[in-house]
């Protein structure tokens, strides 16, 4: 084997063993699995099964449903965790500067390719195929002719039958006239509205988010906040100050990168945040599809070198309706692990999917298999080269422990710690 770029995957003995039964592992999967809890995963019984299947973190998405619903779900999570004797951190996902369309009529709206539709801030108008009201008054100031807009209930699933692609034709006062580019049926009570690569003058930490964090988040001492649509390091600093003022100093902030603005300021955001979530669904419509993979690989590499956890989203969308993922999705999960991702986030798969438990267990098995061929020694050398000399005391101790563990093929490193920092140093030194 020549060169540091070769992976352990190239070992012929390992490839020859693909069809043989996997050996039992001390830990089923080291890659963390974040499960979003909701309508299909709210009961104590289903949450217990998800925890047993490998769910490591429970995500509560406040862009959907209310605090009362999420409180009931969290209470069920605590019962389930106690029943299976497993700790499970709580992640609160903020709404952020998301523009939504309330479908007051509740009925489906048929959009036909080639037709025109007007986007208006006049929310007194009933949504229809000819006019769609949004809760944002400055859209006409932000967009220009030729800009791309997306709208749909499940906008970021990649299903073009439930989301519509619009092109700006002209602006008139506060209204925006658009050409419908594809035939689609908009259904459901709320549609998400996204403007591709255009700055939306709304705060990243909305007043709604502040209210949720100061009440539900503070009352439940949430462990992690996923800051949706993070666009700058200042967004993270603002949330840090807000958490300090509401007696949540230990709550970690994971910056969710969802658009080109977050990508442009990624390095500064990484330094401020405790972790990164690569929201590939949103990025997949804000960026050309061929550019998403490069950002994912680059971002994971930077997070690994900085010792910050990184989570990838939108991995097994087909499992929303099917018992098995596609071959491409399974390979995608494994490649994310081989790139160095620390976690996989399941959204709709566990929130409203038909097979939430199977989604968790399937992703866990793929991650565990990929981990067996992950080149840990090479990753350790990369981190050591990046940190350089002189090395901080804690990192020096952690690197010595990890180096020894690699040499003796230890199954685990037991760390005695008060704050958890020493354990995190050991984890991200790999």
From TrEMBL:
<dbReference type="GO" id="GO:0004743">
    <property type="term" value="F:pyruvate kinase activity"/>
</dbReference>
<dbReference type="GO" id="GO:0000287">
    <property type="term" value="F:magnesium ion binding"/>
</dbReference>
<dbReference type="InterPro" id="IPR036918">
    <property type="entry name" value="Pyrv_Knase_C_sf"/>
</dbReference>
<dbReference type="GO" id="GO:0015979">
    <property type="term" value="P:photosynthesis"/>
</dbReference>
<protein>
    <recommendedName>
        <fullName>Pyruvate kinase</fullName>
        <ecNumber>2.7.1.40</ecNumber>
    </recommendedName>
</protein>
<comment type="similarity">
    <text>Belongs to the pyruvate kinase family.</text>
</comment>
<dbReference type="InterPro" id="IPR001697">
    <property type="entry name" value="Pyr_Knase"/>
</dbReference>
<dbReference type="Pfam" id="PF00224">
    <property type="entry name" value="PK"/>
</dbReference>
<feature type="domain" description="Pyruvate kinase barrel">
    <location>
        <begin position="31"/>
        <end position="360"/>
    </location>
</feature>
<keyword id="KW-0808">Transferase</keyword>
<dbReference type="GO" id="GO:0005524">
    <property type="term" value="F:ATP binding"/>
</dbReference>
<dbReference type="InterPro" id="IPR040442">
    <property type="entry name" value="Pyrv_kinase-like_dom_sf"/>
</dbReference>
<keyword id="KW-0324">Glycolysis</keyword>
<dbReference type="GO" id="GO:0016301">
    <property type="term" value="F:kinase activity"/>
</dbReference>
<keyword id="KW-0418">Kinase</keyword>
<keyword id="KW-0067">ATP-binding</keyword>
<dbReference type="GO" id="GO:0030955">
    <property type="term" value="F:potassium ion binding"/>
</dbReference>
<keyword id="KW-0460">Magnesium</keyword>
<keyword id="KW-0602">Photosynthesis</keyword>
<dbReference type="InterPro" id="IPR015806">
    <property type="entry name" value="Pyrv_Knase_insert_dom_sf"/>
</dbReference>
<dbReference type="InterPro" id="IPR011037">
    <property type="entry name" value="Pyrv_Knase-like_insert_dom_sf"/>
</dbReference>
<keyword id="KW-0670">Pyruvate</keyword>
<dbReference type="InterPro" id="IPR015793">
    <property type="entry name" value="Pyrv_Knase_brl"/>
</dbReference>
<dbReference type="InterPro" id="IPR015813">
    <property type="entry name" value="Pyrv/PenolPyrv_kinase-like_dom"/>
</dbReference>
<keyword id="KW-0479">Metal-binding</keyword>
<keyword id="KW-0547">Nucleotide-binding</keyword>
<comment type="pathway">
    <text>Carbohydrate degradation; glycolysis; pyruvate from D-glyceraldehyde 3-phosphate: step 5/5.</text>
</comment>
